[in-house]
Specification:
Layout lengths: L1 H8 L8 H55 L9 H20 L3 H24 L24 E3 L2 E4 L8 E3 L2 E3 L2 E3 L2 E3 L3 H8 L4 H16 L14
Antiparallel strand pairs: 1-2, 2-6, 3-6, 4-5
Length: 232
Amino acid sequence: MGAAQGTDKSRPEPRPTIDDMVILLLLLLVGAGIGALIAGNRRGGAARGDEVLADGRADAYRWYERLGGQLLNLRDDGHLARQALVDATERHQAAGAQLSQARTVTQYRLARESALEGLAYVRAARVALGLDPGPELPRPESAAGAGAITEEHELGGYRVGPRPSSATPYYYPGGYQNGRPMPAGWYSTPWWKTALAAGAGTIGGMLLLDSLFSLGHHHGGPGPEMFDGDFF
């Protein structure tokens, strides 16, 4: 019995075969490859994200600096262009504040939007000053599809038109109020500023909005289609 136990203890342990080592090596290589692929994808995703962020930042600064340059070259005439230049200056200041705090693509896009709104006011001011409005610019996203006024109208005691006048000294670059499009053009009162301050549509703004849509129905259908055309 003792001799049998001694024989069992002295039996050699089985050694890995060449096939076992090859399989182990292949598993290690596959694991290393998968790890490298995951790391590469992460680096690639981070690089693409950095590139998108850098592009967004550069684009926002481009329009911001262009707006600043335009404002330096224009002088207030004390009349029709005054309010448009005031609004353009406000947008320039807003864009600058947004850029100083921007850290994400969305934040840079908001700064770009403010700068483009300012440039829309600059173009309006140039028209009021009798100057060439300059080349076409991208419309602010907030004004996309809102259309532009092409004819003068008196609506519910409000006057609107495609060009500045003593009766319509306030320019609006277009946008949406309560989900309805309000076209770009010149208005007799800055109803949108009151709406923004109050956080909701004012009675005057709503009456004007209803009047615009009533006019649209009269001309064959509501919506910005009746305001098609390029104000500038």
